[in-house]
Amino acid sequence: MQFTSPLVTGRLERRYKRFLVDATLDDGSFITGSVGNTGSMLGLTTPGSRIWMSVSDDPKRKYPHALQIVEADNTLVGVNTALPNKIAEEALIKGLIPELQNFDSLKREQKYGNNSRIDLLLHQENQPDIYVEVKNVHFIRTPRIAEFPDTVTARGTKHLHELVDMVKAGNRAAMLFVIQREDCDIFRISGDLDPAYAQAFQFARKNGVEAYAVRCHISPKEITATAMVAIDETI
């Protein structure tokens, strides 16, 4: 996934109201920008952190600048949760995940479950459809181990139960965790931060829901899934 225009650099001053950041850009200007991430962003909001922001020329946007990348733990981390679906789609099309590479068509945001939309729906003639739920990951507290979630996610728990329903109906279903950083070799569920999600994940896995994790190469030019990451399912 390539950024459509060059990112500008600066330093993070603070993140607040979940969706806003104050920053000082390298040209000395002080700006307020948006954050496309409603999560806690644990470990990624340290004042003074190096950041990269996109700039929109849309006159209707209240905040032209949008936070895209934060430097943390000496690595670049993508923080925009609107991007993983695009990253996942590119990864599937190029066959990065062998178990999910045989499909004739790919549809986005299809209705399913209880007022939900599946991120990606894979179809192949004479084969079960594959419902793929994509989750953004950028939380690391133990070196080389990425975790999800970084806060309680009732919506994520709901999705897991809906994926089980899809499997019971004769389809395939998969969780695809897109890790927007590359300093990890293992992925696991952070059960201490959201026990309900961890329980739902275990239930889903026992009932046929597949799980995959990929890490990404992050640069000011692009964010691209590059390799699968082993999943530690010990919760």
Automatic annotation (TrEMBL):
<feature type="domain" description="SfsA N-terminal OB">
    <location>
        <begin position="14"/>
        <end position="79"/>
    </location>
</feature>
<dbReference type="InterPro" id="IPR040452">
    <property type="entry name" value="SfsA_C"/>
</dbReference>
<dbReference type="Pfam" id="PF17746">
    <property type="entry name" value="SfsA_N"/>
</dbReference>
<dbReference type="InterPro" id="IPR005224">
    <property type="entry name" value="SfsA"/>
</dbReference>
<comment type="similarity">
    <text>Belongs to the SfsA family.</text>
</comment>
<dbReference type="Pfam" id="PF03749">
    <property type="entry name" value="SfsA"/>
</dbReference>
<dbReference type="InterPro" id="IPR041465">
    <property type="entry name" value="SfsA_N"/>
</dbReference>
<protein>
    <recommendedName>
        <fullName>Sugar fermentation stimulation protein homolog</fullName>
    </recommendedName>
</protein>
<feature type="domain" description="Sugar fermentation stimulation protein C-terminal">
    <location>
        <begin position="83"/>
        <end position="221"/>
    </location>
</feature>
